[in-house]
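Exercise (ungraded).
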Amino acid sequence: MPGVKKPLVHNRSVKTLATAAEAARHQREWFAGLRRRVAEGEPLAVVNADVPHEIFRAMDIPYVVSQWWASVVAAKQRSGHYLELLRRRGLPDHSEQYNAVTLGSAFDPDPDAGPWGGLPKPSIVVGDASGDVTRKIFDIWGREPGVAFYPLESAAENEVPANWWELVPHRWEEAIGPARLDLLTAELENLVRFLETTTGRRFRESRFREVMALVNEQEEWNRRTRDLIARARPAPVSVADGIPGVMLPQWHRGTEWARDAARRFHEEVRERVDTGQAACPGERARLMWIGRGLWYDMGFYQRFQEEHGAVFVWSMYLAIAADGYIRHGDDPMRALAARFAAFTDQLYTPPWSSEWYVKEARLHGIDGVVHLVSDDPRGGYFTARALESAGFPVIEIEADNVDTRTYDGDRVAERVGRWLEDVVLTRAAPAAGRGPR
Amino acid sequence: MAALEDAYARPPAGPSIGYVGADVPVELLTAAGLHALRLTGDPGAGSAQGDRYLGRGVDPMARSILSRLLSGAFGDLDRVVVSHDCEASLRLFYALRELRRVEPGSGVPEAYLVDVLHLPHRTTARYVRRRIGEFADRLAAWTGRPLDVAGAVAAHDERRRLLAGVAELRRAVPARLTGRQFLAAAGAALPVAEHVAALRALLAEAGRLPEHRGRRVFLSGSDHDSPHVYEAIEADGHVIVGEDHSFGDPLAERLVGAPDLDAIAEHYHEYGPTAHRATAAERAAHAAMAARRCRAELFVAYARAADDAPAWDFAAQRAALDIPAVLLDRQEYGRADVAALRKEDPCPA
Ligand code: SF4
Ligand code: SF4
């Protein structure tokens, strides 16, 4: 592997949760089943994480989320291989790796040698036109023989109320604004027609309503789990334990399995709280991780537990599941548009992002914030500023979350360790008896 | 040419409103009676403030514009209108909006976003029309006057027609203007009526313009809000006879036509194909046409560091061209690796 200087010794995290192991097993089975279905001639869609999967679910069209696939590739230390395939075609290997890695796997001369038996060839790709290159990447894919690309817009609003997490479950019209909702609703109506035409499958309104209800139920469980972890001292699980328990079911949103997995995840966390189990028995500091997951070094999150008693209790994955998805309303297509018309603003656009991270840091009694800054345009100043002015120490680390070529885990860990000792632990009170701020 | 050069180099004082990005419907600013200035960065000045607020993942042009706004380089602007022509502009808008909210002492002007989008679909066309209507209403509310849309469209279309004539002078063989001069003619910071008069004067002296015989270059990719890259490339024996970024040829390329908001909305919806909003295939087809039209001998795709879009177009562009093509990737703001242009058989690899 180009650029990886030495083997990453901490790169396997310990999955102690039964639900996480069960979710991982389900993921393998699901992917094997999907490969089988596609081999037998069913269509396959590759879609962006910000695309409303609920439509594919309702129409029973098999789909893979490009970011999930990129995270699998990264976890298998294979990103460099796929980026090299892009380079050979004269395409950049240094830009928007999350989607680029997935495109690279489309050009693999030996696709079956990929992780998990390889990503089958899709017939449909759907992505939103966010940033300057996502649409280009999907469009290049859409020019491969037998592949069709359906793009969605990425619209922006002039003025927004800051307290989105309070508004979006019911008053999403107010939070997002009618212009963006009208646009995405119309695009989704057209997407249904496009899928009906290209796959021959039907879209049934009653099934769609069922899927929408299942998603709300699943995310309600995630909300309870988030609230539970926020209040519990010591932390019952760390983010490395928790991410698979929330994310793998997220990729299956709208199924009964996913809803039940979210419930079982909640039950397991509840039990750990009730029996006083700790992710980090000598908990001295509660940390927040801002940014995408470090898929190729999930052990990073546990490195600081033994030596410093510092445990990552927060990542966006559970928190955004708790706050970012629930949408009630009588018109399911518009409610679905309301889930996605401003989805990334929730995480990356001030004031929505900055105010929300502060709200979450307070809720979780955070002692320090580790902020992963990738070299993408989302920036981090206003997030860090908001957290610091609310009294939370922030350290920024630089890495790309799927491209290992420039990552030096030991160096990053050493910096974070010093910051913990010098800044965080000098301020944090001992965990016992400490409540949320 | 001197008047245009002068207004390009030293924007006259006076504008009360600035704008950022290729998709701001300037007709509406004129219709509201505002003299607006398109804000530009300065590669020669530091951008520490902009880097701080936007992060280093954003096109340095936007970081420089923000730095200059914070240092008061544009005088007393009441407002800044920003378009969504690229991610950097959008991020600049968000930074201005948030700075006003959390650091009111920073003194940045109020920002307004005109969210013009570009997917070639009716859903997007309707959305753009709505945003154009909202912007027109907002302008009328700001000024307290009705807009003179018809007069403004006529004035800007006249400027486009004249600028198209100036573009022909540069496309002539040999070229009668340099790329650097064309940038100045297109980007002179003058009120529309004065700009129109200056362009007319330039066309009137066309016969007396000198000839420029360097290797003819078509410049594709990142926006150039300053002449630095043009000067570097042309000092090396080239002459830039065409480009596809929003400070050059595209400013002259299509008229609005009808004197109403529908036509303005269509014009801006269909504007391009730009590096940041079009597909690689659209960009390649345009490159082939535009390079042929200006009889370019060398195609240069320029991608500034943190402006990734042009690099994604290059493979398709090169395949569509019948002239040598070179990619200058991850270039520093205001600089160009001119040595790469000199190679006889340019090779990006
Ligand atoms: S949670 Fe991490 S390790 Fe597990 S499947 Fe997803 S990317 Fe791979
Ligand atoms: S790498 Fe080789 S084949 Fe590709 S452009 Fe350069 S010289 Fe030509």
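Further reading is listed at the end of the chapter. For now, observe: The two ends of chain B are 40 Å apart (CA to CA). Chain B touches chain A through 54 residues (CB under 8 Å).
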